[in-house]
Amino acid sequence: MKILVVEDDIRLGEQIISALEGNDWVPELSQDGVDALYRATSEEWDVIVLDLGLPKLDGLTVLKSLRDENINTPVVILSARDNLTQRVEGLNAGADDYLTKPFETMELIARIRAQLRRASGNASPIMQVGSLSLDTRSSKVMWQGQAISLTALEYKVVAYFMHNPEKVISRTELVEHIYKQDFDRDSNTIEVFIGRIRKKIAPDVLKTVRGLGYRLHAE
Ligand code: CA
Q1: pLDDT tens digits for 86-142?
Q2: In angstroms, what is the span from residue 58 Cα to ligand 1's centroid?
Q3: 94 C-alpha to center of ligand 1: Å?
Q4: Interval between CA 50 and ligand 1 midpoint (Å)
Q5: CA of 116 to the centre of ligand 1 (A)
Q6: For 125, which DSSP code?
Q7: C-alpha of residue 9 to centroid of ligand 1, in Å
Q8: N or C: which end of the chain has fewer CB within 10 A?
Q9: How far apart are CA 79 and CA 91, in angstroms?
Q10: Residues bordering ligand 1, an ion, CB closer than 5 Å
């Protein structure tokens, strides 16, 4: 899952990035409001973590602009503890959740996870699509009640499909959501992952949609 972290405090930003990476997500850091707005509108993200006090353009304006442009990506705002007005304004402007500073990264991860679940229509931490289930807390995948052992990258692929169960997903989209930007990204390797996942789970669990990509098939 691809997460945009907008935070101008570089130390905090890097701390968040490494915590999210440790959770098998693909986070990227943006350090000012102008850059954040550009990246949030030009690329697709699964969640945006948005600090409100930002240079160049404040977080609230970034958020309002996103919602004005009908970009509905879940947004978790970060705000100062003593600024209730700011938080209320943030929620009114279309934020989905908030955290006050200072916070534990564990809590941020739990809140992001909840947003990812909700965005895919799941209220429970265990996502279920047909015979396939995924426990988002422990990163465990089960097929017809049997635990499936996946590598970190295979897990990222399966999790992305589980969060987008109805969608046909192209190789390019998968690459963007499972690899870091500076990684040597080759969309041909996606085919290899798909092949391995089919072998481990079921031959037709990821159906090829000719010319377009793949779709989850987990009956
Ligand atoms: Ca700030």
Answers
A1: 899 999 999 999 999 999 999 999 999 999 988 888 778 888 999 999 998 888 999
A2: 9
A3: 19
A4: 9
A5: 24
A6: S
A7: 6
A8: C
A9: 11
A10: 8, 51, 53
Q: What is the DSSP string of 176-210?
A: HHHS-TTS---THHHHHHHHHHHHHS-TTSEEEET
Q: Which tokens go with 120?
A: 């895919």
Quote the CA–CA distance of 7 and 163 in Å, as a whole number: 26
Supply the pTM of this predicted model: 0.82
Contact 45, 38 (CB under 8 A): no
Q: How long is the chain?
A: 219
Residue 107: what are its φ and ψ, rounded to 5°? -70, -40
User: How many angstroms separate the CA atoms of 128 and 149, rounded?
Assistant: 17
Task: Report how far ligand 1's centroid is from the alpha carbon of 52 (Å).
Answer: 6
Task: Enter the tokens of residue 149.
Answer: 């052992």
From the CA of 92, how far away is ligand 1's center (Å)?
Answer: 20
Residue tagged 């990476």 (tokens): 21
